[in-house]
Design brief:
The chain is α+β, with helices and mostly antiparallel strands. The protein has five domains: 114 residues, Sandwich (Immunoglobulin-like), CATH 2.60.40.1930; 95 residues, Macroglobulin (MG2) domain (Immunoglobulin-like), CATH 2.60.40; 179 residues, Glycosyltransferase; 130 residues, Sandwich (Immunoglobulin-like), CATH 2.60.40.690; 155 residues, Beta Barrel (OB fold (Dihydrolipoamide Acetyltransferase, E2P)). It contains 18 helices and 40 strands. Helix 4 runs parallel beside helix 6. The longest helix has 23 residues. It is found in: Secreted. One of its GO terms (cellular component) is extracellular space. Keywords: Complement pathway, Disulfide bond, Immunity, Inflammatory response, Innate immunity, Secreted, Signal. GO terms for molecular function: endopeptidase inhibitor activity.
């Protein structure tokens, strides 16, 4: 005990030998018109000491002219810390010469007191620190109604004005508009009473295309200039080319014959009899032309089906109809008891691409392309007109019925309309006044016993019967059909999967590669450090902002300085190398097709660029202007580049263009690219591509916490006041502070649950912030998202509160807020209800939980 008192007396004696001093604390930047909080602290002063004085701001480069009013202060040995507020008004900035400063202007925070000169033996009675001065009054945001305009079009724009604290500002604004040559075409001095200013103007018809700019600034602050840009371009009609396939030049004639025949019904007036005769003569001449081509065997399957239908519909001479019919039936293909027409170039060719038949009745029916469905539908229309409902019509209708989707459609609008027309005609031909019906019994032997469902249909029903029946996985489904009619039974089998593989690329193929340099933000390349890591700072910097360099790092010595140090701490920026001033990459897009089935026409490649990049228009124009004509047309809209190809070759062909980075990026996510048939968008191939392989950021995605959390063990949920844990004293504190030592601790209320790809997302509202590391913006009432793998059992019930602790992640949600992945290193505990805590059995456990929340929330980890 004597030794302890001796140490205390020695330390007190050493402290009494230190000289008293006055410390100043403030943010490192002073904004024009914004209040500045200043802290003054009297340190190591003897008992009974009083210090009176003034604190103000002045310009050292303008004869130390004062820039703000002087505010008095009083410090004593008992009350050794005070807060004062200073403000530089616009007229004060003019009088002290601040607006004439450029290139990092500095201003001085000064404390003036006679005590500084008398007690500290100084030559002057002032003490100051240097701060940065910013004349930026606030924040301005500009927005136009669209990114691209044509000459003569009206441009509508809005300006949002906010002050330094992101509150609405009602200051005067100056808005200017410059054309593509940089000439000022419009200037307005406006006043926005509600912090929002709206205006519009018309682009002159004679304007040159290019980039226009709208700028806005606070009228009394030249340095607060903000701008937005938009493109003015003249609309150019895309250079589309129509190609006639040599083997199918007669389809248009058959289409016209069908249209003219249906149009004969409008000639009811006798005065139009002459015109009707001219139309009938044209139909007769066209029929002779089509019959001659059919006799020569020059028609493919598609043209033959339309020709046969046109000749039968228009009641052409019997010899022409027979030739067309025989020509069409020579191209028919059979699969089981079904009949259809596929890809046949002509009746004289043996090149046939049949649809493969199912190996067994349990196998799904192979999906035929749109052209085959349309051809078969015209064939069915022809057979119904020629023979009525016969055996061949039944076989064709059966094939068409099996090709329909569960919802009733087919591949595209064109073939769906023709197929439904043909099936409707078949139903009309098959309809009878007799009572027809079907009794369908669907049964299965499952885990819960035998299940049976009976469906009854009749020809008097306006529509079919749709039932949602559920059967156990792996059980056999028996279907028993009875009655005197025919019907169609469609079964949709659904699966719950975590991640779908890319099954879109069957025949079409696309590949996108990116090479070059990508600029990344510092936050993406280095790990965050703890705010309290100041052990390596020198003693000379441990006194706060006492030096001349306001940007120097220092150790906070008061709660105010600790708060300001956290808020104003910024990451160092590495200067760019001269060769890397403009980050550019080269895109290579390769397309080809594997199958024998070609496209119905043009193909389009839709490429989504990586975040922060825009394509070089000059490179894209070269693809369309060169003699080789790699691309017939291109479009750019936002992050998308659309390349129009006349056809897709069977061999690999590649095109390339450059892209320039506009802004540095953080975590680069893969982007998508899609190649699809212009006339049949369902025929497509979608792939993903990433940034250059040398990117450090891609390895971060695969090696940082996100991948570890996604591949780690599932989290374990602890129920409210879980038994077995109460016997271990301080088990929550050990988890939080020793192993695994968490980065955050929140008490949250679950709002909703959602599915995101292979994850389950829980949107929560923060009830209490116990601890944070990176998430410095977390506060009660804010929303935070927690994710867990969908394969894990963890379920958080909406409406309930939970205590969640764990490790920080590296990803953010759409609002830019941190989101957390839950794994085996996460603590998830359901908060007990008040009713549960009132029970005698749980009082001690609830008190232990409340004690942990109080201790961890106020003191954190004492290790």
């Amino acid at each position: 005990m004597r030794l302890l008192w001796g140490l205390i007396w020695a330390s007190s004696f050493a402290l009494s030998l230190q000289e008293p001093r006055l410390l100043l604390f403030s943010p490192s930047v002073v904004h024009l018109g914004a209040p500045l909080s200043v802290g003054l602290q009297l340190q190591d002063a003897p008992r009974g000491q009083e210090v009176r004085g003034f604190v103000f701001l002045r310009n050292p480069s303008h004869r130390n002219a004062p820039c703000s009013p002087k505010v008095d202060f009083l410090l004593t040995s008992e009350q050794d810390f005070v807060l004062r507020s200073l403000q530089i008004l616009p007229n004060g900035a003019d009088s002290c010469g601040l607006k004439s400063l450029r290139g990092g202007p500095k201003i001085q925070l000064v404390a003036q007191s006679p005590w500084l000169k008398s007690s500290l033996s100084k030559d002057v009675d002032t003490q100051g620190i240097n701060l940065l001065f910013s004349s930026r009054r606030g924040h301005l945001f500009l927005q136009t109604d669209q990114p691209i305009y044509n000459p003569g079009q009206r441009v509508r724009y809005r300006v949002f004005a906010l002050d330094q604290k992101m509150r609405p500002s009602t200051d005067s604004l100056t808005v200017t508009v410059e054309n593509s040559q940089g000439l000022l075409v419009r200037k307005r001095q406006v006043y926005a009473p509600s912090s929002i200013f709206q205006d519009d103007f018309v682009i002159p018809d004679i304007s040159e295309p290019g980039t226009w700019k709208i700028s806005a600034r606070f009228s009394d602050s030249p340095d607060s200039n903000h701008s937005t840009q938009f493109e003015v371009k003249k609309y150019v009609l895309p250079n589309f080319e129509v190609k006639i396939i040599p083997g199918e030049p007669y389809i248009l004639t058959a289409f016209v014959v069908i249209a003219l025949h249906h149009g004969l019904a409008v000639f009811q007036d006798r005065r139009a009899e002459q015109l009707k005769q001219r139309v009938e003569t044209s139909i007769s001449n066209a029929n002779s032309f089509l019959g001659a081509k059919a006799s020569a065997g020059l028609l493919g399957a598609h043209a033959a089906a339309i020709t046969a239908y046109a000749l039968t519909l228009s009641k052409a001479p019997e010899d022409l109809r027979d030739v067309a019919h025989n020509n069409l039936m020579a191209m028919a293909q059979e699969t089981g008891d079904k009949l259809y027409w596929g890809s046949v170039i002509s009746s004289q060719s043996n090149v046939v691409s049949p649809t493969p038949a199912p190996r067994s009745p349990a196998d799904p029916v192979p999906q035929a392309p749109a052209l085959w469905i349309e051809t078969t539908a015209y064939g069915l229309l022809h057979l119904l007109l020629r023979e009525g409902r016969a055996e061949m019509a039944d076989q064709v209708a059966a094939w068409l019925t099996h090709q329909g989707s569960f919802q009733g459609g087919f591949r595209s609008t064109q073939d769906t309309v023709i197929a439904l027309d043909a099936l409707s005609a078949y139903w009309i031909a098959s309809h009878t006044a007799e009572d027809r019906g079907l009794n369908v019994t669907i049964s299965s032997q499952g885990r819960n016993g035998f299940k049976s469902h009976v469906l009854q249909l009749s020809n008097h029903q306006a529509q079919g019967v749709e039932e949602e029946l559920q059967f156990s996985l792996g059980s056999k489904i028996n279907v028993k059909v009875g009655g005197n009619s025919k019907g169609t039974l469609k079964v949709l089998r659904t699966y719950n999967v975590l991640d779908m593989q890319n099954t879109t690329c069957q025949d079409l193929q696309i590949e996108v590669t990116v090479q070059g340099h990508v600029e990344y933000t510092m936050a993406a390349e280095e790990d965050y450090k703890d705010y309290y890591d100041y052990e390596n700072q020198g003693d000379s910097e441990s006194l706060g902002f006492a030096g001349d360099d306001p940007g120097a790092l220092s150790r906070p010595v008061t709660p105010l300085q600790l708060f300001e140090g956290r808020r104003s701490r910024r990451r160092r920026e590495v200067p760019k190398v001269a060769e890397e001033q403009e980050a550019r990459v080269q895109y290579t897009v390769c397309i080809w097709r594997n199958g024998k089935v070609g496209l119905s026409g043009m193909a389009i490649a839709d490429i989504t660029l990586l975040s922060g990049f825009h394509a070089l228009r000059a490179d894209l124009e070269k693809l369309t202007s060169l003699s080789d004509r790699y691309v017939s047309h291109f479009e750019t809209e936002g992050p998308h580049v659309l390349l129009y190809f006349d056809s897709v070759p069977t061999s690999r062909e590649c095109v390339g263009f450059g892209a320039v980075q506009e802004v540095a990026v953080g975590l680069v996510q893969p982007a998508s690219a899609t190649l699809y048939d212009y006339y049949n968008p369902e025929h497509k191939c979608s792939v993903f591509y990433g940034a250059p392989t040398k990117s450090k950021l891609l390895s971060t995605l695969c090696s940082a916490d996100v991948c570890q959390c996604a591949e780690g063990k599932c989290p374990r949920q602890r129920r409210a006041l879980e038994r077995g844990q109460m016997e271990e004293e301080g088990y929550r504190m050990k988890f939080a502070c020793y192993y695994p030592r968490v980065d955050y601790g929140f008490q949250v209320k679950v709002l909703r649950e959602d599915s995101r790809a292979a994850f389950r997302l829980f949107e929560t509202s923060v009830v209490q912030v116990l601890h944070f590391s990176k998430d410095a913006q977390a506060a009660a009432g804010q929303t935070r998202n927690f994710l867990v793998r969908a394969s894990c059992r963890l379920r958080l019930e909406p409406g309930k509160e939970y205590l969640i602790m764990g490790l920080d992640g590296t990803t953010h949600d759409l609002k830019g807020q941190p989101q957390y992945l839950l794994d085996s290193n996460s603590w998830i505990e359901e908060m007990p209800s008040e009713r549960l805590c009132r029970s005698t059995r749980q009082r001690a456990a609830c008190a232990q939980l409340r004690a942990f929340l109080q201790e961890y929330g106020t003191q954190g980890c004492q290790v």
